[in-house]
Amino acid sequence: MANAIPSRSENYSEWYNEIVKRADLAENSAVRGCMVIKPYGYSIWEKMQRALDDMFKETGHTNAYFPLFVPKSLFEAEEKNAEGFAKECAVVTHYRLKADPNKPGKLIADPDSKLEEELIVRPTSEAVIWNTYKNWIQSYRNLPILINQWANVVRWEMRTRLFLRTAEFLWQEGHTAHATSDEAMAETRQMLEVYARFAEEWMGVPVIKGYKTPNERFAGAEETLCIEAMMQDGKALQAGTSHFLGQNFAKAFDVKFQSKAGVLEYVWGTSWGVSTRLMGALVMAHSDDAGLILPPKLAPIQVVIVPIYRSDEQLAQISDKVKEIMSELRKKGISVKFDDSDANKPGWKFAEYELRGVPVRLAMGARDLENGTVEVARRDTKEKNTVALEGIVAYIEELLTEIQQNIYKRALAFRESNTYKVDDYEEFKRMLDAKGGFILAHWDGTSETEEKIKEETKATIRCIPFDAPHEEGKCILTGKPSSQRVLFARAY
RNA sequence: CGGGAUGUAGCGUAGUCCGGUCAUCGCGCCUGGUUUGGGACCAGGAGGUCGCAAGUUCGAAUCUUGCCAUCCCGACCA
Prior knowledge:
Blueprint: H1 12-22, E1 26-28, E2 35-37, H2 39-58, E3 62-63, E4 69-71, H3 72-77, H4 79-86, E5 91-94, E6 97-99, E7 107-109, E8 114-121, H5 126-136, E9 145-154, E10 168-178, H6 181-203, E11 208-211, E12 223-230, E13 236-246, H7 248-252, E14 256-258, E15 264-266, E16 268-275, H8 277-286, E17 303-307, H9 312-331, E18 336-338, H10 346-355, E19 360-364, H11 366-371, E20 373-378, E21 384-388, H12 392-417, E22 419-421, H13 425-434, E23 438-442, H14 447-457, E24 460-465, E25 473-474, E26 481-482, E27 485-489
Parallel strand pairs: 3-9, 17-18, 17-19, 22-23
Antiparallel strand pairs: 1-2, 4-8, 5-8, 6-7, 9-10, 10-16, 11-12, 11-24, 12-13, 13-16, 14-15, 19-20, 20-21, 23-27, 24-27, 25-26
Helix pairs in contact: 2-6
The protein binds one RNA strand of 78 nucleotides through residues 1-3, 28, 30, 32, 87-88, 124, 153, 155, 157-159, 164-165, 169, 171, 218, 237-241, 273-275, 277, 306-310, 342, 344-352, 354, 363, 365-368, 375, 492.
């Protein structure tokens, strides 16, 4: 038997790492800070991609692809963006290797192949894309441009963690160009809504939508909107961001259009993205000490069937029955796996599929054959029921829907019971240390205060929630007046 | 980039202080058999440049030096 996974309460980050590795989602690679996403993990990511991509298409976007490399001169153009990302960029300086004259069998970068202009491996693609948009836009008739790309980016992080922070990660980045500020702002909000809907309806992860403070804004943006989710250790995870870029990139890359009135104006932009980090959110939001818990909508295998048999003859009988059920389930679009391998015993398989988060497990043995039943186990609650085969497909369909809703409700209830209103700084600190979670508190609106609180408590303002009611109060640190509460938490 | 630690089979490890039948054990893997309703058992078997490179020595996993990599704690961050 495999060693037990460390429990969540014991060591949350070790628990997380073990789940990711043992559920076969990803592993560390030979490349520092970079992971290998394994087939099972990648299947989940593909399902996420599919769902998101459909939503992007529904909102009028199309996919395109831009280069991995950004010439340094382009990268520099938008000053704030460049400054924000400069310290985590991989830089290509040479285009050729040659045999090392001093060490046989080794290679060195050929000094004669030094690039005239260094290439930056994109940490994000605004620069290349806006430089391209410049050529595409002359008139208001060319607008809006609504493009998304699925890509990899590199941000040279000091400390990495599987999915949550890797030096290279996969994501999508939407980049849109508009004739008016209002339209760009509407786009920014629309895409945040798309992300929120995806997180809640597909991942089963409730999120809080809000504005980032200027401190936490994307480098080069006028406004950053985000969704914040709570993980089971009470920490916050930024799950997606949507940026209103104003005319910053248009000005940096000189992207102008002639309006209906014949006036030359700078284009308004947005960008928005979610990454493989969502995989981390998925794991940390729902899973338990027995392993992964996947929402049915994103589970590569929704139903697994385990036969329990004593003889080949018995297995054959069970298989016949199972195949009928499988074909019915598949007709309903449910993905099913029949694990009839003889390599492991049923008990081993039960544990294995729990580890991998398969939402529903069916077990069928001689007893069931006799009674016309099957044992149905749900992963989220670990409840087991013996159910009549008659009507089993409808039963499972309903169960999958129910599991999808249940894990969302559970996560929501967890977040609500770990969200507090606090009006006193000492209590604020005490709550953070004792319970973590989200804290709604008053803030005087200054960066200095935000910085100071971060320094002293490691908590940051995750967002200024859209739905924060107007409420007179005093800043927990300075006592200065405030008109609404903001969301504080320690974050990933 | 500062502080700490670690590199031994696919994974996890013992041995390193005190150099000499020391390459240990568990999981996994292969073969055969018995098993199969919550991580089976027995028997046999395969698998190693002891992170890399120099050095000391009759002899190095063990001592010395250099390098590389990874992890943890900070600083930085989607």
